[in-house]
Structure formats: C-alpha cells, structure tokens
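Bug report (template v2)

What were you trying to do?
Predict the complex of my protein with zinc ion.

What happened?
Run completed; filing so the output is reviewed.

Input:
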Amino acid sequence: MERVRIVSLKGIRKRQSAAIHAGQMEAARVWTACRDAHLAARQEHGKWPNRDALQKATKGRFALHSQSVQMVTHAFLANVDTAQQLRNQGRAEIRYPYKDKTFYPLMWPAQAMHLEDKRMVLPMGRGRPSLILPKPEWLDQPCACKIVWNGLHNELHISVAEDTEEAPLLEPTHKHATVDLGQIQQAAVATNEGDALIVSGRGIRSLKRQHSKQLGEIASKRSRCQKGSRRWRKLGKTRAKLTLRYERRVRDLRHKGTRQVMDFCKEREVESVFVGNPDGVRRKNSGRHHNQRMSQWEYGKDIDYLQQKSEQDRIVCFTGDERGTSSRCPVCGHRHKPKGRNWRCKACGFEGHRDIVGAVNMHPIAYGQVVPFPKRITYLRPGNLRRSSSPGTGHRPDPSGRRCLAEARNQAPQDVCAGSLEHAHELCHSARSLPALAG
Ligand SMILES: [Zn+2]
C-alpha cells in the first residue's frame, strides 16, 4: 500500500522557492506541449501520441530534470485514459485535457531522488542547481515525490510504500453490511443480523456552511478593494488560509466518521461491506438548489476512505449502484419518495429511519438476501462537535437531556432503545436541522 506524507516547505530560502516557482511553470509548459500534440492528433484523426511519442517530443526541450518531464507526460496520458474511459461509459460532457496551464506540480520518481545524511537532493536538470531540502527523519529510502502549491505555500508530497503483512485467512462468517452514504447522515450502516449504525454528517455540514459564509464575507470585502492592492492581496491570503484550515477539518471528520463505520463492522465480525454509489442520484437534474447541494457532496472521498480502511481491517469492500433503494418499503416493496428523516409506508404502515431503509434495501442487490429491519440503531457523531456549535443560536442541548429524549420519542419511538443522552440529542438535532435542508 502507498501512503502520501506531506512535508510543509514553508520558510525555505527565497532562491529555492524562486527555483520551484520557475520549475512549476516549466512543468506547465510540458503539459501544454503534450496537450497540443494530443489535440493535433485528434483533429487530424491520426494516431494519438503514446508514451514513447510524447517522451520523444518533449525530450531535451525543457529546463527540468528529464525524469520530471517524463512524469508530466505520464500524468497527462493517465488523464487522457481516464477521460476516454468516462466517455466510453456515456459521459459525453467529459473533455480531453484542453486547458492552458500556468503551473503544474514538480514531480520526481524515486530513482531521481538522492538521499544524503541530512539532506534530500532533487535534481532540476543539467546545468541548474539541484533543490536541496532537509531530509525528514522517517525517510530512509528514495521515494517518488512532488512539490505542490496549496494556495499559501509549497508542500512536498512523498509517497511512501508501506509493507503490508500477510493477510491471515479469516473464517467466513457470512456476516455482511451495507452502507448508505448521505449528506445529512454521513453514513447509515445495516448488517444482515439486525444491527444498524448512523454516523452524523452534521459536523461536516456546519463546517461547510461556515466556510461558504466566510468566503462570501471575504469576496464582498475584496470587491471594494482595488485589484492587486495590498489589502486585496492580504484578503486573498486570508481566504487561502481559511480554506486550508477548512479542508483539514473536513478531512479529519471524514476520516473519523468512516473509521467509526469500519470499527462498527469489525466489532460485528462483518466479512464484506457493500457501499452504495450515489452516482445516479447525483447526476439527475433536479433543480438549481438541489443540484448545488449534490455537487458539493463529496461521497467519492467517503467511498475512498471506506475502501482504504476496509483494506486495513481485512474486510472485503465493493461498491455498486444504489438507485431506488431509498424509495422502496423494505417490508412490502411499495414505492414512494420519503419526506423527512422518517420513512412511513403508505401501504403497510411500516415505519423506520430513512437512511437505514436505504441500507437495508441494498442487501438484496448486493448479497441477494432480504434482511429484517434492524431493531438496534447506534448513533454516532465523528469528532467532538460541541465546541463548534455556537452558543446562543438555535438549540442548546439541556444538560438533563430529558427534553431531547421526549422529543426523540415523538420523532421516532422505535429508535430510542438504549435511551442514551448522546443518541437522543442526535435525534433531536437531526430532526431540527431538517426543515432548513428539506426545503
Ligand atoms: Zn410497506
């Protein structure tokens, strides 16, 4: 397994950051040259340039280390491949690389990196001084790396190969789980043995709202400045800083939430997990507001993280279409679009949590097995969110939790089984935040 470790290059010498800057612009020129070659071939209906052709066409023309140039051509071809695959799947709106790039990350393969006692030497091509950076202590062998601009400063991304121990063969347990990803709830999990978990997505959503509000404030301040002025630049820097912090926070919560899902599965000795892929739902055109919400939903990351974590935990993980799973009654199969968090069947009177309904309905698709609706539902929220909820506005959880519990009982009586305060608060919150989102 490969893992990317990030080293900040904040505070390196001016001369070096100028060299990186120039190198990134040169790498962008390599990209543009590849784009031109590819575009010309496409327009003339000729043979598309392959690896060899691009390497030959770019050889010796650019002020970079030869292998850095090759890495750009490889990245370009990988990009073309992905676009081609997507287009073959019927996504005609996907374009082959067409943009002019101004900057592109500087990349080196493992064999280009030289390690010395305390330094790491990255060659910049013949006749140019190499980049010399302090060697991180954990780095003991040359690794592929790239220098990426994060909006505020450069970062060195080093991909470290991690040796994975031999997987011990596990006894088949025939325990399966399905995961329904959502926006209001990050994930709803149902096992075939009547256990269910709901991981709240409230933290991520509130961070998202806070961030877009901050961006709006900065944009309005910036619109009153002269473009390029000191204040204008300062605001741009603040924006980059806030965005970086926001991304770190969201990533943290996402990891914590998916970790909770995998821990839940591990505890119950689940051997295989099916993750519903909401691609179909997302691409459907359902109006401006809904579309915007859908495009901001980063379920691809949730799927990625779940796959990584399942690999670590030796659980099989696969994905598939989840279309229609949230609008069918798990008892009688009656179809209707649910409103709110609670799923109520008009035909047979069944009632249950909407996201769990989605997860339960995935069992027949993924494993060909109809499972009963879970009796036990665990509610978790990733990270400590108490601090981020601003006091004074909205709902303040009462310390006794009695009110929450009562409200939760009204909301979904069968869900309140353990009677834990945490879980009652959660219900209460999710019920409250609904009108704002469902509208
Ligand atoms: Zn029904």
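What did the reviewer find?
The CA atoms of residues 11 and 99 lie 31 Å apart. DSSP finds twelve helices and 15 strands in the chain.
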